[in-house]
């Protein structure tokens, strides 16, 4: 019997090719979209869940409560861990120090360097061996005990292959970090899976960091509780049966006991444990991996996937019930032959199932083609495996769910046909739920499409706004060449500068800590105008030499920029700082003094117009610009547009001759600024793709509906034509209906879209305002698309020979 | 076998009742071959559908082989007609998507007959109607007469006790029609199948052993 149904299902698909084709295409596209979304979610939700002790592992994090908001950070003061080990002997702790952008030089032996040097991004992590009691790695050679000794390091398989040709030859070999820190490979680990936010590449022992802290500019002792850097992190493995709450509740007393000097802290400080399994999703903090995924955006993605598949199901229901009219005779005969309702329903489900299976196969093909493009719309750079046990289960589940959802209504309708009427071909469109159900479904589809259209337009406009926004500085054609802070590097800087200044294509040159707009943030407490008590806000600090302002085009509002560095440095502040200190007229603050941290009182010599310190998501911070050469290792080079390539090569050649043992690494400022918005760029691309899909699927649905109407209105159109109606009046008959549907959908979608996108825009301090234009554009686009879709069928109906259509009645 | 008492069926349009059947009283015994005649629109098909349980009467009692059909649920009724009744239609009503073989097999599928048994039964039926060579053809590839033979084979496959035929020869030429009538007669006489047919032709009606005349939904009794 079942076999029989399958045979019939296949024959029906062949017979109603157009119908099956639309259904299969729509479902396939939806299934492909859903499968890809599933893979993304599967991947994102698997981050660091695989460690054996993941449930008991935590990261210690901090919250600083300031009058103007909370600040969250993963950076811990250096003395923390000793105090923790003292007060919590049952808990296992591990501290790490991460180094971003370090240079790795491969050594021929402990003394001689080779010419193999690399700038590594993340993945150089100085760690205590206890870290690997918490995080699982597979040791290929040696193990974590190597990390008990200074100067020893573990290294990943692919890193070892890269440096030494073969990881098996890596044990005992030497590497030099940042031209200073000699380490010996004492363990090799398997590459960390991509779904981990601990991208271990080189893991020197933490003791190696302690022995070389000055390389990272930690010249003072590390007993100071005052400072902290997000590079220094603490992890904890709780004993079985104890929970984070207990630990957290003891933190206030702990801080009370150890934290000295509270009056120099403008904020109130809290420590608490954040579960390892939560780190990937916690947008309050950064982590060591390459992206944080907020659960809200993942859920939004899941919702989009669900809606897309539902839209395809709606099409299926629409088209199948329309087809049910044509198939009513068959259903009637089957009933007369003794077919029970349940048997007829089973048949409909099986036919649906066959179509869904075809769609799933096609959809998997589409997903396979689409998957490599995923990196443009999601934060996943590694290729994902299309078929794994999870995704296969998911696809099977979706096939079943889609079959049931799509088949339910047609099955219900068909099994209810009165056999006598069905045989006499008396079933008409009203018997299958009439046009009203289809109207509701199409309105839903169009509402969703328009929601995505509005979201897309707004996201794209915001991204354009960001690209063209006035940052208060000039970001065009500025090359940032990264340097090191060690003395050997700094001592050669004057030579480097002198040679650069001879390059014809270089218009401006400044050595600085970083660009005015950057992802770095260095903030410190401050006092003003000889008033010993600190202000209740932190100053953001930028450092650059006397060419800083002209290189980045900062605009002076009052006073002057500081001259070349002499013995006493001066400060230049931004407008916001002046205003925060109570000076609305910048002129008046020139000459007053500021004290940063616990430093000297120094004069304000100038005020510059506000520039964006970070991304447009962030407020403009009160900022102090000063000249502090030992931190100013980045060469910021403004290049004239002509001969850009040659100038670039000249710069690199000069670097190679001045700094032969240092690897060259440079970035364009505008690119690094664009990088702030990587997530948003992807999101807006994602919207574009899914809006496109939604429109495509709803057009298929519309086409189905209009085919359905064309069948229903054949007689009406025939009569009207016989009575002398023009073709255009008949086109109007069809398009009026859909115009109304699209408008109704718009009325539903517009407020929802407005609400959601306003919410999204609230992530940005600087943003576009949502004008009426967006909505006008959205409805105009929807109407146009709807008319084009409807047009073909409507014209065919209008052109049909009226005599023929009447005779068949 | 069949007893109809005071069976009426009507439709209500704009508050007015139009009777399709009015106060029908009829008894048909097992083994009879009854022909129903009457002008077009007199309610013949309606009556046949009521007897075949495809349609309800609005009033009256219907006893089929001891079952009170008028008080049964749709499910029980379909159980009953599936077991005892075979239908033959003027327009054949074969399923176009199915082959001859599959069309004949369909009622057995709905009776949950085992597959081996099914094969044997359909095979027998194809032999009997000499259509073995045509078993894989689709209805549209057959002539009208052949289609009607398939329709009858399908009606007979579940060995019904009653065959209801609504103008079975209406779309056939007279030679084909005679063949079908001979077949009915043989079924009736040799296999004891009760047959009720609707026909316009006196000649066809004469194959049966009793004629019922309908006019405006009533049975006309010869005066
Ligand atoms: N569902 C219905 N609603 C209204 N009128 C019907 C319906 N079914 C049949 N009729 C009418 O009842 C009358 C009897 O129909 P039918 O039994 O098909 O006649 P016959 O088969 O004798 O030609 C016809 O006039 C037909 O139009
Ligand atoms: Mg009739």
From TrEMBL, chain A:
Keywords: Cell membrane, Membrane, Transmembrane, Transmembrane helix
GO cellular component: plasma membrane
Transmembrane segments: 20-41, 298-325, 346-371, 391-412, 440-460, 689-711, 738-756, 768-790
Subcellular locations according to the entry: Cell membrane
Classification of source organism: Bacteria, Pseudomonadati, Bacteroidota, Chitinophagia, Chitinophagales
Residues of the MacB-like periplasmic core domain: 21-251, 455-626
Organism, scientific name: Flavihumibacter petaseus NBRC 106054
Domain ABC3 transporter permease C-terminal: 303-419, 690-799
One of the Pfam families matching this protein, by short name: FtsX
PROSITE patterns: PROKAR_LIPOPROTEIN
Stated name of the protein: Putative ABC transporter permease protein
Membrane topology term: Multi-pass membrane protein
Major subcellular location class: membrane
Claim: Transcription regulation is one of the keywords in the record: no
GO MF term list: transmembrane transporter activity
From TrEMBL, chain B:
SMART domains found in the cross-reference section: AAA (SM00382)
Pfam family, one: ABC_tran
GO cellular component: membrane protein complex
GO molecular function, one term: ATP binding
Keywords: ATP-binding, Nucleotide-binding, Translocase, Transport
Residue ranges occupied by any ABC transporter domain in the UniProt entry: 2-223
Source taxon at top rank: Bacteria
Protein family (similarity comment): Belongs to the ABC transporter superfamily. Macrolide exporter (TC 3.A.1.122) family.
Protein name per its UniProtKB record: Putative ABC transporter ATP-binding protein
Species: Flavihumibacter petaseus NBRC 106054
């Amino acid at each position: 019997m079942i076999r029989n149904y399958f045979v019939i299902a296949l024959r029906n698909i062949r017979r109603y090719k157009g119908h099956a084709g639309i259904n299969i295409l729509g479902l396939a596209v939806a299934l492909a979209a859903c499968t890809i979304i599933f893979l993304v979610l599967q991947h994102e939700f698997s981050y660091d869940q695989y460690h054996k002790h993941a449930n008991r592992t935590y990261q210690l994090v901090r919250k600083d409560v300031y009058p103007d908001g909370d600040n969250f950070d993963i950076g811990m003061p250096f003395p923390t861990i000793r105090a923790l080990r003292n007060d919590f002997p049952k808990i296992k702790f591990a501290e790490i120090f991460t180094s971003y952008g370090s240079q790795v030089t491969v050594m021929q032996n402990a003394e001689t360097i080779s010419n193999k040097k690399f700038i590594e991004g993340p993945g150089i992590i100085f760690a205590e061996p206890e870290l690997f009691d918490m995080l699982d790695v597979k040791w290929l050679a040696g193990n974590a005990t190597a990390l008990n000794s200074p100067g020893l390091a573990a290294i990943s398989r692919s890193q070892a292959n890269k440096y030494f040709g073969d990881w098996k030859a890596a044990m005992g070999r030497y590497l030099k970090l940042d031209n200073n820190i000699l380490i010996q490979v004492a363990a090799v680990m398997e590459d960390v899976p991509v779904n981990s936010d601990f991208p271990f590449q080189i893991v020197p022992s933490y003791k190696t960091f302690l022995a070389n802290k000055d390389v990272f500019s930690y010249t003072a002792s590390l007993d100071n509780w005052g400072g902290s850097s997000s590079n220094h992190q603490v992890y904890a493995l709780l004993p079985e049966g104890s929970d984070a709450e207990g630990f957290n509740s003891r933190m206030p007393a702990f801080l009370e006991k150890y934290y000295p000097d509270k009056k120099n802290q403008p904020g109130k400080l809290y420590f608490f444990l954040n579960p390892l399994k939560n780190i990937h999703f916690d947008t309050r903090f950064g982590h060591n991996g390459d992206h944080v995924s907020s659960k809200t955006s993942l859920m939004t993605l899941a919702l989009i996937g669900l809606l897309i598949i539902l839209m395809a199901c709606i099409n299926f229901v629409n088209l199948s019930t329309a087809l049910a009219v044509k198939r009513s005779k068959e259903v009637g005969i089957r009933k007369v032959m003794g077919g029970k309702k349940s048997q007829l329903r089973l048949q409909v489900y099986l036919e649906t199932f066959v179509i869904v299976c075809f769609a799933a196969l096609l959809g998997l093909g589409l997903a396979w083609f689409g998957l490599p493009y995923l990196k443009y719309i999601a934060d996943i750079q590694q290729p994902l495996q299309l078929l794994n046990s999870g995704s296969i289960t998911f696809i099977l589940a979706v096939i079943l769910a889609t079959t049931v959802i799509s088949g339910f209504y047609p099955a219900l309708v068909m099994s209810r046909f009165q056999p006598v009427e069905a045989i006499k071909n008396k079933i008409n469109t009203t018997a299958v739920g009439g046009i009203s159900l289809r109207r509701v479904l199409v309105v839903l589809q169009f509402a969703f499409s328009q929601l995505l259209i509005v979201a897309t337009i707004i996201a794209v406009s915001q991204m354009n706004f960001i690209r063209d926004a006035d940052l208060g500085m000039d970001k065009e054609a500025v090359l940032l060449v990264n340097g090191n802070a060690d003395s050997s590097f700094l001592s050669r800087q004057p030579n480097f500068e002198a040679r650069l200044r001879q390059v014809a294509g270089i218009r401006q040159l400044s050595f600085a800590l970083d660009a005015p707009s950057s992802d770095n943030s260095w903030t410190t407490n401050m006092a003003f105008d000889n008033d010993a008590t600190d202000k209740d806000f932190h100053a953001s600090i930028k450092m650059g030499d006397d060419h800083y302002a002209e290189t980045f085009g900062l605009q002076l509002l009052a006073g002057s920029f500081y001259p070349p560095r002499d013995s006493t440095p001066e400060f230049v502040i931004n407008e916001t700082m002046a205003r925060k200190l109570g000076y609305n007229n910048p002129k008046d603050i020139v000459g007053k003094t500021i004290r940063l941290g616990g430093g000297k009182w120094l004069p304000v010599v100038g005020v510059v117009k506000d520039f964006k310190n970070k991304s447009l998501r962030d407020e403009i911070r009160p900022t102090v610009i000063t000249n502090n050469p030992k931190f100013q290792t980045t060469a910021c080079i403004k290049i004239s547009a002509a001969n850009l390539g040659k100038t670039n090569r000249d710069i690199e050649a000069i670097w190679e001759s001045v700094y032969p043992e240092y690897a060259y690494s440079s970035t364009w400022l505008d690119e690094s600024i664009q990088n702030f918005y990587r997530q948003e760029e992807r999101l807006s691309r994602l919207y574009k793709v899914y809006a496109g899909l939604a429109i495509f699927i709803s057009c298929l649905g519309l086409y189905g509906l209009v085919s359905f109407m064309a069948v229903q209105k054949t007689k009406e159109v025939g009569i009207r034509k016989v009575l002398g109606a023009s073709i255009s009046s008949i086109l109007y008959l069809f398009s009026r209906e859909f115009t109304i549907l699209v408008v109704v959908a718009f009325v539903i979608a517009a407020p929802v879209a407005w609400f959601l996108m306003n919410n999204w825009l609230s992530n940005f301090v600087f943003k576009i305002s949502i004008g009426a234009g967006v909505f006008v554009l959205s409805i105009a686009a929807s109407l146009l698309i709807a008319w084009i879709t409807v047009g073909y069928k409507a014209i065919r109906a209008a052109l049909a020979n009226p005599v023929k259509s009447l005779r068949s009645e | 076998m069949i007893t109809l008492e005071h069976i009426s069926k009507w439709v209500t349009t704009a508050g007015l009742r139009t009777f399709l059947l009015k106060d029908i009283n009829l008894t048909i015994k097992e083994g009879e071959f009854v022909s129903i005649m009457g002008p077009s629109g007199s309610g013949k098909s309606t009556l046949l559908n009521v007897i075949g349980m495809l349609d309800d009467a609005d009033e009256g009692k219907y006893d089929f082989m001891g079952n009170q059909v008028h008080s049964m649920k749709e499910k029980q009724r379909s159980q009953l007609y599936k077991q005892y009744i075979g239908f033959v239609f003027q327009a054949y009503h074969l399923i176009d998507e199915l082959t001859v073989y599959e069309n004949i097999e369909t009622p057995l599928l709905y009776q949950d007959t085992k597959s081996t048994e099914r094969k044997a039964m359909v095979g027998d039926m194809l032999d009997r109607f000499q259509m073995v060579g045509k078993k894989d053809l689709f209805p549209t590839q057959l002539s009208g007469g052949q289609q009607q033979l398939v329709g009858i084979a399908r009606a007979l496959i579940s060995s019904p006790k009653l065959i209801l035929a609504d103008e079975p020869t209406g779309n056939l030429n007279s030679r084909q029609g005679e063949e079908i009538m001979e077949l009915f007669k043989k079924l009736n006489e040799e296999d004891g199948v009760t047959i009720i047919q609707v026909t316009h032709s006196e000649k066809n009606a004469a194959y049966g052993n009793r004629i019922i005349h309908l006019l405006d939904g009533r049975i006309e009794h010869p005066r």
